[in-house]
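Fig. S4 source data, part A: sequence.
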Amino acid sequence: MLSTSRRLAYAALTVFAAACCHNEATYVLSAPDSSRVAILYHRDCGAMAGFGYHLSVVKSGSKPPWGLGNAVTFLNRDSLAPGVPRRRTVALLWVSSTQLLVAYDTTNTRAIRNAGTVRGIGVVLHAGIPDGLRAIPEP
């Protein structure tokens, strides 16, 4: 168990690190009933951290999240290599108003966290992009 001073130091470091990150929404996809949106955004926390994509599911009209994604966090495998272009190979599909399919190309992208369910929405993670489902283009 962490001591109180260590917990406070960890909390301060977490807040400081979050303040140093730049977030940019790159794709928004509304659920079929328009009650929720899936927001894919990239989070860049500087040279010492990997370049990641995050996916959050929020109510329509809500402010976009700027911390870690509440549904899935992806790390681009090339993100730590200097001079290598960042590629996103993720595809999103609302299967229904309560289920979101998130497919990703495993050659470039690694899912490092998957919540499974977010605010009553089932988030299904699929390694590989099925035929007929297009990856979201890089902005």
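Fig. S4 source data, part B ends here. The longest helix spans residues 4-19.
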